Every structure is written in C-alpha cells, then in structure tokens.
C-alpha cells in the first residue's frame, strides 16, 4: 500500500500461517511498517489469543518470528 507505511508479506510462510489459522492452531506472524504507530495499530487489530502478531519498523528485513519463543 503505497504511502501507508504498511508492508505485506506472502509466500510459503504466509500459506502455512493461513493453514494454521484455518486449523485453529496458535499462529505467529510479523507486522512490519515504517511507522511504529501504524505497526502497533495493526498488531492491536489483528492479534487474538491464537493469532499472535509481533511488530517491527524494519520493513525490508522483517523477520519471521520463531514460534517456539513464548
């Protein structure tokens, strides 16, 4: 989304996350935005007890979180 500061990610990890969500399994994703307020808002809006969002302002190097980290 040009100008919004939000970054989207797709690929195998995103597909696995979708399958985990569909199966009702706990899932971890990274929300990346150049503006921490934007990332924090997305994190707040998207997170649920089974869908944990971590945020970063590093949109180019946004890591995939390690699901084994509590």
Task: Describe the overall structure.
The chain is globular and about 30 Å long. The protein is α+β, with helices and mostly antiparallel strands and 70 residues long. It has a domain at 27-70. It contains two helices and three strands, in the order βαβαβ. Strands 1-2-3 form a three-stranded mixed beta sheet. It starts with 5 loop residues before the first strand and ends in a 14-residue tail after the last strand. Strand 2, helix 2 (36-46) and strand 3 form a beta-alpha-beta unit.
- Uncertain runs are none
Total helices: the number is 2
As a whole number of angstroms, the C-alpha radius of gyration is 12 Å
**Rough outline:** globular
| Proportion of residues in β-strands | 15-25%
Q: What's the β-strand tally?
A: 3
Instruction: Briefly note the structural class of the backbone.
Output: alpha+beta
* First-last Cα distance: 31 Å
Order of helices and strands: EHEHE
The whole-number mean of residue pLDDT values reads 76
Strand order of the largest sheet: 1-2-3
Helix content: 25-40%
**Major beta sheet summary:** 3 strands, mixed
């Amino acid at each position: 989304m040009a100008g919004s500061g939000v970054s989207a990610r797709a690929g195998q990890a995103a597909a696995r996350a979708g399958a985990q969500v569909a199966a009702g399994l706990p899932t971890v994703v990274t929300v990346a935005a150049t503006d921490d307020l934007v990332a924090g808002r997305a994190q707040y809006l998207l997170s649920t007890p089974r869908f944990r969002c971590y945020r970063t302002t590093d949109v180019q190097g946004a890591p995939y979180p390690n699901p084994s980290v509590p």
